[in-house]
Amino acid sequence: MIELQGIPVSPGVAIGPALVLDTEGYRVPNILVPAGEAEGEFTRLYHACKAVGSRLRENQASTSAAAGEDTGNIFAAQLQMLNDPRLHTELRRRIQNDHESAAYAVNRVLQNYAGALRRLANPLLADRAEDVLDIEKQLLFELGAVSRPPLADLTEPTIVLARTLTPSETANLDRDHVQGFCTETGGSGGHTAIVAKGLELPAVVGIGRFIDAVSNGTLIIVDGDRGRVVVDPDEETIASYRKRRKARVSLSERLAELHELPAETADGVRVRLSANIEFPHETKAAVARGADGIGLYRTEFLYLSSEEEPSEEDHYNAYSEVVRAMHGRPVVIRTLDLGADKMGHRPLAENEHNPCLGLRSIRLSLRNLDLFRPQLRAILRAAVHGDIRVMFPLITTIAELRQARMLLNLVAEDLKDADVPFRSDIPVGMMVEVPAAVIMLDMFAKEVDFLSIGTNDLAQYTLAVDRGNEYVADLYQSSDPAVLRLIQSCVKISKSSDVPLSVCGEMSSMPGRALLLLGLGVRSLSVPPSAIPTIKKTIRSVSITRCEEIAKRAMTLEAAREVDMYLLNQIAELVPELVVE
């Protein structure tokens, strides 16, 4: 038995026979193409790019559905790389002028791009280099220059061992058979790690050289909780890990039994527990797990999962499908929350040096009314089928909110004049995601029907931390006392203004932090469908009085780490079933 230590990137335990992927690199020969065949060679490359682009969009859609929009956007970024006009100009020049084969041109150009990124000695740009190499490998597969790994025809549970896995390879792992994976290279901030975590696939990366000494079929244990990989474990070790895995399965089954019970505290306080979704088909999982409604319908997938900009009918059909599936339960539709840098259908901004602080979300919509109007029209039209509510993201000023509401009214008048069925009496809300909105919330509360705190962006903008930057990622904590004080302020203003408030960010899907939110006075949470059972169990295991005591204590602490350790201890005491050793 050999125990190896790596970097844990996705929790859980996986046990199974090893499938060792080819550790050899690949070399693409420089085969000259006759001048008369150059155009045909470029056409072959064009079709390869189309095929890879389609696969990236599929990866984005499926990964967003399973793991959330942020994870899916990894493939949106790759799609932008693939479609970069400068890349295609360079490839065409090499094929037509230098008579290189399509495969060799792809190999040379993209290897050069990746090498340039790595030479900048920036870990974040090194991750982008891996994305470039992922695109290279996919194009070479399509061009027939390299063979695909033997993952298509699996018939039994498998643990994948590889030198490295690209984000695309990870997203396309056969979840029916691949139980987990480990790689020699990689880090916790890489895109492969993010995809693995989003797909809930136990994984350990960055182990170092080891797979040369492992044969196919060798029994492997991947401990994604502790970052361990056990090769050829003994019976005692196998029994111990099987016990842990069984405990996790048993917990999931017990939690599933709560789906028909309300999210109600031990002392009878009802909490609205809704679902965050990206795709219409997720409503099935939301209903099955007992969601009280859709607290956040992220509509970005309509823009990201298609080569064409969505039409009004595309919007209308998607929204109608969701609201009908929820059978009268409320559906909160958030309008477009993308940055101009992510809008591949049309160039909306050039040379934005800091897109997070630039043209995005409501700012983007208000500057592109031909983009915004079809979405608002579709929302009002779909509202005839059920309880639809509209929510505007990243509101920073009163003027933005009023402009958005005015446009909604104008759209309603247009529909009326055209004799198109619609409802205009739908509730209108806003996301609270920036400190400016919190400071002015008493004024905003006079102009909206409901409020929703997006803790992901609120933490980012409050703490001045780019959550994708590994140099400062440890500072990105929604449990930071500064963020908690802002949330507390929002709750007080919500109560004094009698305007409903919910929390729909990642914070609400963590059991300990959910207790804290309840103690601060929040009575509406919206979480991914997969988190509903865990959060419902948490809510039903405590009293509001105890939550208030927890919040009072947490608000005296000085750092996010202290808050989190305290909350973990509280969960271990109050809901020990959720702690799987």
Secondary structure topology:
Layout: E1 2-5, E2 7-10, E3 13-20, H1 38-67, H2 69-82, H3 85-96, H4 102-119, H5 123-142, E4 158-162, H6 167-171, E5 178-183, H7 191-198, E6 203-205, E7 219-223, E8 228-231, H8 235-256, E9 272-277, H9 283-288, E10 294-298, H10 301-304, H11 312-325, E11 331-334, H12 362-367, H13 369-382, E12 388-392, H14 398-417, E13 428-432, H15 435-439, H16 441-444, E14 450-453, H17 455-463, H18 481-497, E15 501-503, H19 511-520, E16 524-527, H20 532-540, H21 544-554, H22 560-574
Parallel strand pairs: 3-4, 4-5, 5-6, 9-10, 9-16, 10-11, 11-12, 12-13, 13-14, 14-15
Antiparallel strand pairs: 1-8, 2-6, 3-7, 7-8
Helix pairs in contact: 1-2, 1-3, 1-5, 3-4, 4-5, 11-13, 13-14, 19-20, 19-21, 19-22
Describe this structure in words.
With 581 residues, this protein is of the alpha/beta class. The protein has four domains: 2-22 and 149-253, Phosphohistidine domain (Glucose Oxidase, domain 1), CATH 3.50.30.10; 35-142, Orthogonal Bundle (Enzyme I, Chain A, domain 2); 259-273 and 455-503 and 505-581, TIM Barrel, CATH 3.20.20; 293-428, TIM Barrel (Alpha-Beta Barrel). It contains 22 helices and 16 strands. It has helices at 38-67, 69-82, 85-96, 102-119, 123-142, 167-171, 191-198, 235-256, 283-288, 301-304, 312-325, 362-367, 369-382, 398-417, 435-439, 441-444, 455-463, 481-497, 511-520, 532-540, 544-554, 560-574, and strands spanning 2-5, 7-10, 13-20, 158-162, 178-183, 203-205, 219-223, 228-231, 272-277, 294-298, 331-334, 388-392, 428-432, 450-453, 501-503, 524-527. The strands form two sheets. An eight-stranded mixed β-sheet has the order 1-8-7-3-4-5-6-2. The protein is globular, with a radius of gyration of 25 Å.
